[in-house]
Specification:
Order of helices and strands: HHH
Radius of gyration: 64 Å
Largest sheet: none
Number of helices: 3
Length: 271
């Protein structure tokens, strides 16, 4: 009711988070401002375009025709497998096998085998070990010790090791003698010959070559041949090069130009 007694115009109700339908409690404050903070979308949702619409229905049809039957078949096979396992293994085979194991192994085989091993096999093995030790191992060890080990040790100690030491001493003595003979007969004479004869001769030859060949040739090259070559080059430049250049520049070139003009005037030569 207004102040004039008239009823206000009714506004049609629009559902939103801030304006719940009549009879419902008002939402919290944070939900009342949610519509203002995040305005409603007017366009299509992300990924909902023409291409998505075209591809979606064939994909759903393929999934409905192929994937769903295969999934159902797989679930049926799993269910049947679980039923078979539950019926044949859990209720039938496993109790039978467990009973057979308890009957055959726990009550019969294990006690029998334990009795046989404890009262028959172990004493038999001990007896065989005693027989092998007394009749095979100890005689063979005695024979090996007194027929091979003791003679071999005596042979090594009194024969082979002295022979080896004597051989090493003989080889060392022969090496010392050969090195001494080689030193006195070859190394020292050659060293003396090199130091007392060949080195002085080489030095004398080098001195003679330097004073008789190198120094005179260097002096002649520096004091005779070089000035002569420079004089010849200067004379050739003055008597040959300069006149030839003058003749070419003052005589031959004008004659060639005049000859070319005459030929050109007579029409003999090319343009």
């Amino acid at each position: 009711m207004t102040a004039n007694g008239e009823q206000p115009d009714r506004v049609p109700w629009e559902p939103s988070r801030a304006n719940p339908p009549p009879g419902r409690p008002e939402p919290p404050a944070w939900q009342q401002h949610a519509d203002h903070a995040y305005p409603p979308r007017t366009g299509p949702e992300p990924g909902e375009g023409c291409l998505y619409t075209v591809v979606r229905w064939p994909a759903r049809i393929i999934a409905l025709v192929i994937v769903v039957p295969l999934r159902l078949l797989w679930e049926l096979v799993r269910l049947i497998g679980r039923g078979i396992k539950f019926l044949f293994w859990d209720w039938f085979l496993y109790p039978i096998l467990r009973g057979l194991k308890k009957l055959l192994w726990d009550w019969f085989l294990y006690p029998v085998l334990s009795f046989v091993g404890r009262h028959i096999l172990v004493p038999l093995g001990n007896a065989l070990a005693w027989v092998f030790t007394r009749l095979v191992y100890r005689p063979l060890a005695f024979l090996f010790r007194h027929l091979l080990l003791v003679p071999g040790a005596w042979l090594w100690r009194h024969v082979l090791r002295p022979i080896g030491r004597a051989t090493l001493l003989a080889l060392r003595f022969a090496w010392d003698v050969s090195t001494a003979v080689l030193n006195f007969l070859i190394v020292r004479p050659l060293s003396w010959l090199w130091r007392a004869v060949l080195v002085p001769i080489g030095r004398g030859i080098a001195v003679v070559w330097r004073h008789l060949v190198v120094l005179p040739v260097a002096w002649a090259w520096r004091n005779v041949l070089t000035p002569i070559g420079r004089a010849i080059r200067a004379v050739g430049r003055v008597l040959v090069v300069a006149p030839c250049r003058w003749v070419g520049r003052a005589v031959l070139r004008p004659i060639g130009r005049a000859t070319a003009e005459v030929f050109r005037a007579l029409g003999i030569g090319g343009r």
